[in-house]
Design brief:
homodimer; mainly alpha; about 70% helix; about 5% strand; disordered N terminus; DNA-binding; Tscrpt_reg_HTH_GntR (chains A, B); transcription (chains A, B); TF_FadR/GntR_C (chains A, B); transcription regulation (chains A, B)
DNA sequence: ACCGTATGATTGTCCGACAATCAGGCCTAT
DNA sequence: ATAGGCCTGATTGTCGGACAATCATACGGT
């Protein structure tokens, strides 16, 4: 299997073979994953020639991939100096969380208005699945994956491509902070309760309550994450 | 820049004073302008080789520029088929307007919290300037320019780079609809009244009222634009 | 008239080249 | 010794050409 995607393995020294999907997409996916997994650390420079050697693709492809990631906000390019992994400041992180709250409120409102009963049930199911996971493990990664399933039902159910695109971008940019937030003991339990409340409001087709509960959830996650970050900064 | 390319005759004549933005940026700006001015019409295919000839730059540059514009939503690329000028459907346009309402609400809230008194006064001044313009001319282009000045004060005053980036993207994507909306007789007068109300609420530092008024303004603009568009579709 | 194929157009990707720019060390003059 | 300027290496920005893969369409045989 020459073209196993480097997702689960170390991202280094894994030349990618030619599979059906455009190579550029694979490069983008690999770099995105590496950034979100902290294999590429915030602030680290991304030198084109190094990426060429490690990924085994041409400079053209690398450059297009880097620009794509830049438009997603995951990397920052400074003219004449190249790209580096974005390192959002506290202020920027807070901004991102507020934007996320506003957009996810809108998503929830649209979900209430547009989603089928099946989708509503599926959403409730993901919450219960999340509850199961958060009771049986402390693995932040597993909990994050379960939460992503929730959003995997919620966001498409809102039937808005633009909204989906924007939220995906924002969520990627705060991914690191999400992990920090959920590492806080007791936080997963609260998360389950908050999401359950959102799902119930949705089941009642109560758009206003649901979107407000969702916004409150995001804001609370923000507080937790930022608080933890400030302590980290103070320690080091 | 090493060779004689002719993005515009003007800057070729410039001896050497300007350090010059990267050519890619000039290409992006030129294409963006052409799209927003309808020189490139929605749905029109953007063939790389034609752009090369018309702009006098290499394919590398063109491709990077197209991907940038794609990430802004102004062009749509379908794999193996190339890029075309985006042509948002009615549903998509409505989505964009709702997102814009949510984000601009947030901008106004932040403006109230963060902008200086000088900025508040400058904002009010742009509204009065807009009132002047809309009374003395029917030129939609001039009115749009005046409105852009309003946003030119409002958005930076919110002190959020992420928010600014997102709103710029959304606003570009509905630019065509904005023109349609303002062409509606009587609409400019209403716009002035609505923005005046927003500015006054901001002057009172009443964040909740201001953001709600702003959202209402965007929603009303959406109604006007979409209504006009539906008629257009019905006529033709 | 139907269907498969030849053909052309266009994109995706690679390669190599060179100027422009930036960072840092080195050298000189005061 | 220090300030300032120069040289050099590393890296990006842009160019041109090349080729396979893929899509669109016209063509030809049946």
């Amino acid at each position: 299997m020459t073209q196993t995607n480097s997702l689960s393995e170390a991202w280094v020294a894994e030349p990618m073979g030619r599979v059906a999907a455009p190579i550029r997409e694979q490069v983008i996916a690999a770099l995105r994953q590496a950034i979100l997994d902290f294999q590429l650390k915030p602030g680290q420079r991304l030198v084109e020639r190094e990426l060429i050697e490690q990924l085994g693709v041409s400079r053209t492809t690398i450059r297009e991939a880097l620009r794509e990631l830049a438009s997603e906000g995951l990397v920052t390019v400074v003219p004449q100096r190249g790209a580096m992994v974005s390192a959002p400041s506290l202020d920027e992180a807070m901004d991102l969380y507020e934007i996320r709250a506003a957009l996810e409120s809108l998503v929830v409102k649209h979900f209430v208005e547009r989603a089928s009963d099946d989708e509503v049930r599926a959403l409730a199911a993901t919450v219960e699945e999340l509850a199961q996971v958060s009771e049986t493990t402390d693995d932040v990664r597993a909990i994050l994956a379960a939460k992503d399933k929730f959003y995997g039902v919620l966001i498409p159910g809102a039937r808005s491509a633009a909204l989906q695109q924007l939220i995906d971008g924002i969520r990627a940019r705060v991914q690191m902070l999400r992990a920090t937030s959920l590492s806080n003991p007791g936080r997963p339990v609260e998360v389950v309760a908050e999401l359950r409340a959102v799902a119930e409001a949705i089941a009642r087709r109560d758009a206003d309550s649901a979107s407000e509960l969702c916004a409150a959830h995001v804001r609370k996650a923000a507080m937790t994450a930022l608080h933890a970050l400030q302590e980290t900064d103070a320690d080091e």
